[in-house]
Amino acid sequence: MQFRWRKYRRGRLSLLQATLVRAVLLIGAVTMAVPFGWMVCTALKDKRTMDSEPYRWLPKMPSADPTVSWSVDYLSASTPDFEDVVLRDFDETAAGDDRAARQGAGSLSMAVDFAADQTPDRTIDLSSAELPDTPVSMLAFWLRGDGSGHHLRVTVHGDGFVYRADDLPVGFEGWKEVHCYFRQEQFDPLGREVVPLRRDPPGDGGYVSLRSIRKVELTAVAEPLWSRAWQRWTYSFRKAWQSMPFGRFYLNSLFVSLAVTLGQVLTSALAGYAFARLKWPGRDKFFLMYLATMMIPAAVTIVPTFVLMKMLGWFDTYRALILPLLFSAYGTFMLRQFFLSLPADLEDAARIDGCGKLRVWLHVILPLSKPALATLATFTFLGCWGAFQWPLFATQSMHMKVLPIGLSAFQDKFSVQYNLMMAASLIVMVPTLAVFLFNQRFFTRGIQLSGMKE
Amino acid sequence: MRTFLAAVIVIAALGIYLLATQPGETAREDQTRIRFAFPGDVKAISLFSRLANRFMELNPDIHVKLEPNVGDFRQIIKRDLVADIAPDVFFSDDDYFTVFADDGHYLCLDELIAREGYDTAPFYAPAAESFRWKGKTYGLPFGWGCSLLLYNRQALRDAGIDYDPTKWTWEQFAETVRRCTGPATVKGQTVQRYGYMRDNSSHAMCSLWQGGGTILQKAIVCPQCGRRNDVPDVAEPDTATCGRCGRKMTGGEAEWRAACDSPGALAGIEYMLSLLPYTPRAVASGATEMPANQELFAIGRLAIIRGGPYSAQWAADVDVDWGIGYFPAGPGGRWTRFYCDGFVISAATKHPDVSWRLLKYLCGEDAQRLLAKEAYHVPVRRAVAQSPYFNRPDTPWDESIFAGAIEHVRFQRKIPEWDEASQIVDRNFGLLMLEPDSPKHISAAEYLSRCQREIERDVFDRE
Predict the structure, then answer these.
(1) Do B154 and B289 fall into the same domain?
(2) Would you say residue A262 lies in a domain?
(3) What number is the ipTM of this complex?
(4) Number of Cβ within a 10 Å radius of residue A199
(5) d(CA A405, CA A190)
(6) Measured distance CA(B42)–CA(A190) in Å, rounded
(7) Interstrand relation of B139-146 and B378-379 (parallel, antiparallel or unpaired)
(8) Is the torsion defined by CA of A253, A257, A260, A262 positive or negative?
(9) Are B409 and B92 in contact (CB under 8 A)?
(10) CB within 8 A of B88, min separation 6: which ones?
(11) Measured between beta carbons, which residues in chain A are less than 8 angstroms from residue B46?
(12) Count of Cβ atoms closer than 10 Å to residue B198 Cβ
């Protein structure tokens, strides 16, 4: 761009040509930026804002109104064998054929005006209820939110214990099911609001006897506007993060990508040096043969590699994720080309000073090749971070999965929840974006060096 | 060098941490460890991890290692079967069940069922039948589904339609779709509304059945008199009787043939084509375009959308007053497609009895209750599907209509050659759906005759 503009200044391009070039580049940049912008905006929105017409680019700000108008209905408990015990059905009056009218007709109202200092608590007293002495793992109820973003606090009082939960931001509108778990669930089912309960005093993490529960206290908690806005805009990210063990996937991806990057840079630098500087019989022919392996698509070698991993007993281990990717013809080729461009005199000088071949490689060649090494490291890291096929083949256990696989698992074919998908995609993209932005010049340099992208 | 050392330290620290925090996947000495694999979408992971945890609580002598698989589950299981690393218990759907059953990859359950007197009667019959092949049981069903319609009540009211969407006929449905198409006012704005969405080749099959046709026909050759008897998909030589000699056809050979080009099938396809003017042309008919149709429905621009029991989950979030309807009844009946998921045991398992215990739990009442509450599929156990666990009193929609669709499902045995046959049907369907002025467009009659010819020639090797 600058080059062209300089050409214009030097009088080699007319003003019209230069403007045209800029306009084309600008259109290209906008075309590329719009989908990314849509992705970010979508991740910041909830489902209802997404479906709104006309289309809204930015998420709505929560209302500054210091009131909430919620309704609670159908409080039930679930046994370990997934049987439900209905504790309160506030809709009993509306029972009948009109199912659509059931929700809301006789629900427990939680209309609270924080400014008027009204009591924000609603207590569902179960002490007089004839509850069975059955263990339960979860309490569930339906909550009609108003999208205000104020918090709901759930407290369960029992005989000699209290279960408390983190506040639940009620950023949604309409009816939604809230699950309050006495025991931590490993994965969060989508489509529900999930509230883990913590026992005070701490217990053994077992089930709770239904008969020992005395009351369920629901409290509306006022939140400042900035906090509600933050909660609303980060909702998709939090929900996506809770739905899958993305933390583990992240660390796996980081570990594998770093290990492969380091290993590949090391092996490529050694091989590249051998092909560029060492003299041995058949070197160039061998190099051509090695280079020819780049012509073989990865899909062809994936099955033999898988069989090999299985025979070695490495299937579903980090070894299978890392070791097959440590050697790269592309990296060797790129570094060899770079090493060839280094003056041989420097190497000769080091030899005269008594350096062996390995010391020359370590103390002369590598320090001079930092740009090329950084380029290869950038390429390798980006490629490895986004790799899907091999990790899919090489792993089986949940804790061995890497981010692209986790993201694919996140795609629920039956739910069109673009906001969650975009949030999860952004979570996955952040490191690659960072690596690319910081190492952009190496990326360009790599293409210049090798004449190709990996 | 400093960068190199720093990278080595970071990698080593990460590696040590990851290895140290690996979940305890190894069984205790007093436990039998079995592996359980299933498609690893987020809902399934949540559902099956809860079921497996409860199963292990109830059976402390068993450790279940969960293996959620991402991607094409069929291909992954094929990999595992070929590499001899198949899990002990794994998911199977009816699309490829017979392929692996025919190759002997599944453990036959008949002996275990007989030994324990395990009762399969509480399952819906088509669901249980989905995991039988050549008269033997190789798996137990878990959840079933079928194609249904979700309709926008307001759109039907706007069009002055008062037909019962669970009982409408071809003519009534066509009239509904026609009258719902046109400019409509949605939230104060005038928009173009469409009556219905385009069908894809698997749903065109429903119209074909409704017209009275079928794709494949099963026949059993009577070993006594040699007569070829056309039989329903579920009939087996041991149980079917010959139409000529009236004797059981035990030992008779079952065979399949294409039966696409009947007048009933033609009527069905022509009916489906007659609805096209009332569908959005910009949105194609493939399954991948379903989200686009769902968006149109969510903003009130599509009056009727195809769906299944799973649709309630996304539809619950849309700001539309919707109801559930069935496909319309044609001269051949009110047919819809049926699909079923279930679980099988690997033939190579070293722990058939322990695997059988897990299989029974996964398809038992407790697990079915959780499945029902998650609205993942319709439970295969009638008692649970008809209970408040599935037909929930706390949701505004009536789940019993989903379960009631069992009356209209058409059980189509997915024989091992089904893939090839459906590829032929699909390929030709693409030509049928081209614009009529396209040089490659084919008529309904030609579509069916091509399917007939190509299935007979390429799938069954008959000229």
Answers:
(1) yes
(2) yes
(3) 0.79
(4) 18
(5) 18
(6) 8
(7) antiparallel
(8) negative
(9) no
(10) B34, B35, B36, B345, B346, B349, B350, B351, B354, B355, B358
(11) 185, 187-190, 243
(12) 21
- Cα–Cα distances (Å) from B283 to A295, A363, B198, in that order, read 39, 62, 8
Strand B409-410 and strand B336-345: pairing?
parallel
pLDDT beyond 70 at A328: yes
Within 8 A of A83 by CB-CB distance, chain B residues are 366, 369
Give the per-residue SS3 of B321-339.
CEEEECCCEECCECCEEEE
Question: How many percent of chain A have pLDDT more than 70?
Answer: 86
Please list every residue in chain A whose beta carbon sits closer than 8 Å to the beta carbon of residue B289: none
B322-351 in b/e form (b: 16+ CB < 10 A) is bbbbbbbbbebebbbbbbbbbbbbbbebeb
d(CA A219, CA A152): 6
Distance CA B47, CA A33 (A): 38
Q: What is the CA radius of gyration of chain B?
A: 25
Q: What six digits make up the tokens of B230?
A: 């056309």
Interchain contact, A415 vs B314, CB within 8 Å: yes
Upper half-sphere CA count for residue B364 (Cβ side, 13 Å):
15
What is the reported pLDDT for A257? 93
Which residues from B are below 8 Å from A399, CB to CB?
Answer: 22-23, 25
B386 touches B312 (CB < 8 A): no
Q: Are residues B175 and B283 in the same domain?
A: yes
pTM, to two decimals: 0.82
The answer to whether residues B165 and B326 touch, using CB atoms and an 8 Å cutoff, is yes
User: What one-letter code names the amino acid at B115?
Assistant: R
Distance CA B55, CA B361 (A): 7
Half-sphere exposure of A81 (CA within 13 A, CB side): 8
The answer to whether residues A138 and A181 touch, using CB atoms and an 8 Å cutoff, is yes
Q: Can you give the pLDDT at residue A96?
A: 44
- Helix (H), strand (E) at residue B359: helix B352-362
Enclosing domain of residue A24 = 2-43
Bridge partner list, A68: A112
* B349 and B320 assigned to the same domain: no
Phi, psi of B462 (to 5 degrees): -115, 140
Question: Where is pLDDT greater, at B218 or A123?
Answer: B218
Task: Provide the number of structural domains found in chain B.
Answer: 3
Please give the Cα distance from A109 to A107 (Å, whole number): 6
Q: Do B317 and A47 touch (CB under 8 A)?
A: yes
Total residue length of chain B: 463
Q: Same domain for A29 and A87?
A: no
Domain hosting residue B174, numbered range: 148-198+279-326
Note whether B286 and B199 are within 8 A (CB).
no
| Same domain as A446, residue A315 | yes
B327: nearest Cα among B276, B401, B385: B401
Residue of A nearest to B364 (CA): A81
Of A83, A191, A315, the CB nearest to B313: A191
pLDDT under 50 in chain B at which residues? none
Cα four-point dihedral sign B143, B146, B152, B157: negative
Please name the amino acid found at residue A240.
A
- A191 touches A252 (CB < 8 A): no
Tokens of A106: 């006789």
Partner-chain contact B314 A410, CB within 8 Å: no
Given CB atoms, is B315 within the 8 Å cutoff of chain A? no
